[in-house]
Each structure stands twice: as C-alpha cells, then as structure tokens.
Specification:
Layout: H1 5-36, H2 40-45, H3 59-65, H4 68-100, H5 107-116, H6 124-133, H7 151-162, H8 166-174, H9 179-190, H10 192-208, H11 211-216, H12 225-233, H13 239-242, H14 248-290
C-alpha cells in the first residue's frame, strides 16, 4: 500500500515528536544515573545537558553502601512491601469476590461505601488519632493496616471478577464446591492478569510510600528507605551517609552525588521487578477497567 505525500509527512513529524517525547521522559532518569557516577567536584562545575558521567567516580556508591542506616531501611522496606502487598492482595481478592456475587446481601450499598471513600476521607488528623488510639504508633503495622485496601484496586478486581461467566460457579456448586473452593480454585486462577496488576500497584505504592512513615514512626530503626531518601534529597542531610570525618567543603560536593546514588539504589528494585509482570499489565488493566 503506497502512502500519500501527506501521510509520509505526517509519519515523519509523528516520529520526530515521539522521539522528542521519549527523550524528555527518559532524560531525567538518565541524568540521575550519570550524575551518580560522576566526580563530585566536576559535577558541581558542569553546565547544560549531562549526556555521560563527568569524571567517572564510584565514591558516592561506596559511601551509600557503607551506610548501615540504608541497609536497615532497605530491610524495613522489604518487610513492608512483602507483608503489606500479601495482605492487601488477599483482602482485595476476598472483598472483590464477595461483592461480585449477585446473591450477596446489601452488595450495592457496601460497594457504594467503598467508592465513597475515593472522594471523601477523614483526613490526616483523624487518621493519626485512629492509629494512635489503636496503639500502632512506632509499630510496623502502622504502615500496613491503615492502607491495606485500595478502593481503585478493589473496583478493578471486582469488575474483572464480574466478567467471569456465572456458569463456572454454577457448575462448581453442582459438584459440591463451596465459596472458598470456587474463589481459590476457579476464580483466582482465571484472574492472574488482574492480580498481577494490583500486586504491582500495591508493591510500588508501598515501596514509594513515605508520608505515613513520617507521620507514625519516630524510631529510625523502623524507617523505610524512602524516608531516608527524603532526608537526603529534601532536608539535605547526608551526615548519616558520609560520617563525621569529612570536611565541610567535601561534604557539600560529595553530598550532591550521594543524593543521586541513593535515588538510583532506591529505584532499581522496582525497575527490576516490573519486566516480569509487564506482560500481564496491559491485559489486566484493560479487562478490569472495561468489562463489566
């Protein structure tokens, strides 16, 4: 099929636009990576676009990986992500399955109250008072229980479950299966794409979360990695990484590369996990969002 002159011109401009958009999207991440491998003094003097490391140097990564606080915060984050994601996915599946059954009493009012929380919430102070009254301050559960179920993920999963034919459930009940067998042996295996999607959403959300940790935790041994990253990036506090044997001038210079190195270290795990669930991502989110 031959393209007209107008179509060829459109394709050229479309390609240039997409290349430019890709560069604009990718460059901030590439800048952080290049800066993290750069010499601190040369990076401070660099101007304009950074297209490669200036004065390749691993000093920032050496300081980051020698920092015991970073490893303890990594361990805490792994606990929060593993336990929180497992609990959140389990509760979401149970809630979505219950609300997707047509014979459940008060199914629509309960669904409405779930959806209601997407627009209205108690706010920060009532949440803090609730967590405090439950005795969860300075407790790992404070980062797991209050945000255990996302309404958006629940609705996506609920919509997917409703798209599964009722005849499968009816056939299973004729064979004597109860709701637990139907949910775990029939519904869940058929819902692997959407479960992979909400697992990714929950894991990324917990990995990137820092506000609840700042609100509910005062003990540094419980801090997640994002709260340590916040101290370095926003509060400009790199003393815990470099220690006290560094001069003020060197602290300012190396502190810049340490910020970038810490950001890379905190981001890489999610980037490593994402390709393994990418094949489920588009399929699950499209089916969960469209079918009803």
């Amino acid at each position: 099929m031959r393209l007209s002159s107008g179509e060829k011109i459109f394709n050229v401009f479309n390609m240039l636009f997409m290349v430019g958009l890709t560069f604009i999207t990718f460059y901030p991440f590439a800048y952080v990576v290049f800066a993290s491998f750069s010499d601190a003094a040369m990076l401070m003097r660099a101007r304009g676009l950074l297209l490669r490391p200036v004065g390749f140097n691993l000093q920032a990564y050496e300081m980051v990986f020698k920092n015991p606080v970073l490893f303890s915060s990594y361990f805490n984050t792994l606990i929060y992500v593993t336990c929180g994601t497992t609990l959140s996915v389990f509760l979401t599946i149970c809630g979505a399955y219950s609300l997707s059954r047509k014979n459940v009493l008060l199914r629509m009012p309960i669904t409405f109250f779930f959806v209601f929380t997407m627009w209205f919430s108690g706010g920060m102070i009532p949440l803090f008072l609730l967590v405090r009254n439950l005795g969860l301050l300075n407790n790992r559960l404070a980062l797991i229980l209050p945000s255990a179920v996302s309404t958006y993920n629940l609705i996506v999963t609920l919509t997917y479950f409703r798209s599964i034919p009722d005849s499968l459930e009816e056939s299973a009940k004729i064979d004597g299966a109860n709701d637990y067998i139907i949910m775990f042996r029939i519904i869940v295996p058929l819902a692997v794409p959407v479960i992979a999607v909400i697992t990714l959403f929950y894991a990324v959300g917990i990995w990137n979360a820092w506000f609840h940790a700042m609100l509910f935790l005062n003990r540094r041994e419980l801090f997640p990695v994002q709260l340590i990253l916040r101290e370095i990036l926003i509060l400009n506090d790199t003393s815990g990484v470099m220690g006290g044997a560094v001069s003020q001038g060197e602290r300012i210079q190396v502190g810049e590369t340490i910020k970038y190195a810490t950001a890379v270290v905190a981001t890489v795990p999610i980037l490593v996990v994402y390709p393994f669930v990418q094949r489920y991502f588009v399929q699950g989110i499209m089916i969960g969002a469209i079918k009803g």
